[in-house]
Each structure stands twice: as C-alpha cells, then as structure tokens.
Amino acid sequence: MTTAPIDLATLHRPRLLITAARFGLADYARTRDLRQALRCGVMTALPDARAAVDQLVVLEAMLEGLRVAHDAAYRPARHVAVLTALLAEWQVAYGAVDNVVALCAARDRVAAPAMRRAVGG
C-alpha cells in the first residue's frame, strides 16, 4: 500500500472547519464537488483518488496560509469545500477518515480550555 502524502491527524485546523467538512461528506458527489474543488472544467478528466489527494493537499495548504495570514482573498466556504473533497478522496484512496476526525476533535477539546486560560477567557 502506498503511503499517504501527509498524516491527516497532524493537520491543525479550527474545529468549525473540520466539522463543516465532515457534514459535507454526506452530500459529497465526486463528479460535481471534486471539479469544483480543483476548479477543472467539464471536459477535463478527473484524477484518481490518490492524485486528487495530492492536489487537494497542496490547495488546502495554500488556503490555510491565506486563513492564517488573514488575507482578504480567503474564502471559508472554499476552504470547507476543499477540506470536504480532501476527506472524501482520502477515504477512497487510503481508508476511513473517521479515526482522524475523531482524533482532531479530541485534540481540540483538550486544547480549547488551555487556549482560553492562555488568553484570559
């Protein structure tokens, strides 16, 4: 089995983004949503799941950079769409993502109180 390009559990994203992407998985339609996420035309052949994951990882990292930099070009809906596609394609290419999503949620539950204490909340 080919190794994954990244470990999804190492992604540190806000809980709201991950939750929205998880909800998006229920309505994910590969032909429609992957084309939208990758912004490829109707006449363009869709990549296989592993190639799509590679492209989506790069795209998501770019969006995360815009988010962290508070760039005016950042669009949360686009980020959610790309994360949804990434999770769906990851599931096809490498197996279940439920464990990764649960790990991210658990990490957020532990980190949130510490962050509130750090900022005096």
Write up what this structure looks like.
Pfam families: DUF6477. InterPro entries: DUF6477. The protein is mostly helical. It has one domain. The protein contains five helices and no strands. The protein has helices spanning 15-25, 30-38, 49-68, 76-94, 98-118. α1 runs antiparallel to α5 (98-118), α2 crosses α4 (76-94) and α3 (49-68) packs antiparallel against α4 (76-94). The chain is globular, with a radius of gyration of 15 Å.
Q: Which key phrases capture this entry?
A:
mainly alpha; single chain; 121 residues; 5 helices
Give the rounded overall mean pLDDT.
80
Number of helices: 5
Gap between N and C termini, in Å? 46 Å
Question: Overall 3D geometry?
Answer: globular
User: Helix content range of the residues, please?
Assistant: 55-70%
Largest beta-sheet characterization: none
Record the SSE blueprint.
Layout: H1 15-25, H2 30-38, H3 49-68, H4 76-94, H5 98-118
Summarize the structure.
The chain has 121 residues and is mainly alpha-helical. The chain has helices at residues 15-25, 30-38, 49-68, 76-94, 98-118. Helix 1 packs antiparallel against helix 5.
